[in-house]
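Hey L., structure's done. Input below.
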Amino acid sequence: MKFASEFRDPALAKALLARIGGVADQIGATREKPVHIMEICGGHTHSIFRYGLDKLIHPGVEFIHGPGCPVCVLPMSRVDECVEIAMRPGVIFTTFGDAMRVPGHKMSLMQAKAAGADIRMVYSPLDALELARRNPDREVVFFGLGFETTTPSTALSIQAAAREGLTNFTVFCNHITVPEPIKALLDDPDMMLDGFIGPGHVSMVIGTHPYDFIARDYGKPIVVAGFEPTDLLQSVLMVLTQIAEGRAAVENQYARVVPQNGNPVSLAAIADVYERRPSFEWRGLGEIDASGLRIRPKYRAFDAEEKFGIGYAVGRKVVEEPEGCACGAVMTGRIKPTACPQFGKGCTPDMPLGALMVSSEGACAAYWQYGGSRGLAAE
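Output:
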């Protein structure tokens, strides 16, 4: 396919791998442990395993899978609150498909649908908005979920609902931000990270400047990357080159898509509709200050938490993880998915204990689907 095959060229990949090997050998001469590079985005994690990059990369480089799956980092209490809203009479609850099978404490949205709740999968919050127009006698709730990538579309939908005066459309807002959990990881003395592969889609919205603190305050290199195999290999090479040269900077490998200052239209919509929550709970990371977004008071009529008296509007509920589930440790890069005692045993795609096994960006789903070697590794 034009404009994709160029980025999947095995000859180019082999050339990049050779250059990575040379720089990794240079770095390895002065250290005993591999260079730990964390890819923040779950889409990058899946690309790494889809193309077998984890097997092809020099042994002096190790990928660490970060908290880049927005479905995965939600605590079980928020899934429980989704189910609680969806089970109310007169509610049409709408969500992206990859959230349907994420387990809550008692059930998933898929199980709630089987129990009679009117839960519908949508491709966009605009689909939910159209449902509200067509069903004026029903309360239509959209599960607003995701990092800065999906935040603008939800904001634009809320603005449209306000302009039209819709009174039966609300958003259960669980939008979160990328820079704050990176800071939390860097502040953790047990996390030994040498550099980062930055998220491509998020950066398309926010630009590259929000990552300046990583290089400036922590002395770690970060390279915003695309999603094709040669994108990722070039980004690894760029991170390693910075380390070998003793410098730390924010670099943009994905410049064909990511503007330095972000998307002004998207950023304006976000600023108009949302404000920072004082704190937000992340699965595996706990409460992180200013890491979540909530709907501003001027759009309160479209805030499901306020309308239904649920979630942070009435006080956070603490729900313990299932016994033996290591989602938190996997998501923060402390262990690999296969080190979880439940992986492939008590936790499978058919009977998941945690979101990482069923989300389209979950690390456990990547390990299960690709087994760590595919694609270019076979060529």
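Residues 372-379 have pLDDT under 50 and may be disordered. The first strand starts at residue 35 and ends at 39.

-- N.
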